[in-house]
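Practice set, problem 2.
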Amino acid sequence: MNIIIESPHFTVNPLLEEYVTKKVSKLANLNDRLIRADVLLKLDTSDTEDNKICEIKILAPRKNFFASCKCSTFEDAVSEVVHSIEKQLRKQKTKSSKDKQKLNVDDTAEDETEE
């Protein structure tokens, strides 16, 4: 999986870049067919403390995944977004396995009625 980190209007610290790469690459363990991860790190112009925004878009063959979070640090935002995408990937995985089981049950039911 390719990981592309974008940060408009500021440069990313190498430690932050390494942290993002480490966290996002763990998503490949949940689904080995992920193609690319686009990570966008932004600073919000508000005066509040939580002005760091992280958005991650994951491209997969049949479905794309997206999550966004606003926190006080980029590390917290990245962790929250990765956790959210993990939930989406797990949900998709259980949904697809249930669909496969349903297809297998339907196939055996059709075979029994033909006899």
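Problem 2, part (b): a different protein.
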Amino acid sequence: MTPDGPARDLPLDAHLHTDLSPDADVPIDVYAALAVEHGIAELAITDHIDFDPRAPAYGVSFEERERTVRQAAERWGDRVAIRFGVEITYESAREDDIRAHLATHRYDYTIGSIHVMPDSPYRADQVASFVAGRSLAEVVAPYFDEVLAAARSGLFDTIGHFDYVKRYLAPHVTPDRFATAPGLWEPALRAVVEAGMALEVNSSGLRQSPGETYPTAAVVARFRELGGRRVTAGSDAHRARSFAYGLDTAYAAAAWAGYRELAFRRGGDGVAIAIPGRFRT
């Protein structure tokens, strides 16, 4: 069963892209109005930043983004809380640049994610040839090696869409194959646990080819078994029609794994946000 529209009456959507991301087209006020309409109490605006000069979100203006989000937070503050976040494309080769940026730029919330970049083997024009003749372990290794490095970097509040590689590999590798091969992703999952970062339950996969969250409820449960203490949830919307889409499914996955709270931010100013009781079994 797929969601029939935006989720309602939830405390947080921690992953949203506005028209300040090169691949999104939503003014921040549109998200704020949708949040009021659908009862989403708090939003994290997490527009993309890339550190490869060839990538679309390279060289964006921190000052413009912060000003836009902070001003919106003031306008809407009596109706919805709006936080200034970022989704950083993590590349181990560019970790020094990322570290330097985060040392000098203050965000409320940071997501570290692995995306298809110019040198990625998962680019649409070459993924079929990359998959051909390789084992599943060989196919996914470049992706999960980067996830593991992102976790070990200690730079982020959250690791975004943990197994997003499922999207890039469809239809050559089906989600079912991931479900039967936990040894391929578990080392990276353990690294997230050891880093004390939150694991994001990202609902965008429900509207994309995998048809399931990133990661699935079973992986979220394994994260908890391994000692993971912090999870969060986001819709990863890039269009207004995707706002909060499937977000209740992400909440349900966290609750099914035994979590009673979502984590938002780390450190002394980190907060815990209760998962509504209707998701608890």
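Answer key, part (b): Residues 264 and 270 are 6 Å apart (CA to CA). Residues 136-153 form the longest helix (18 residues).
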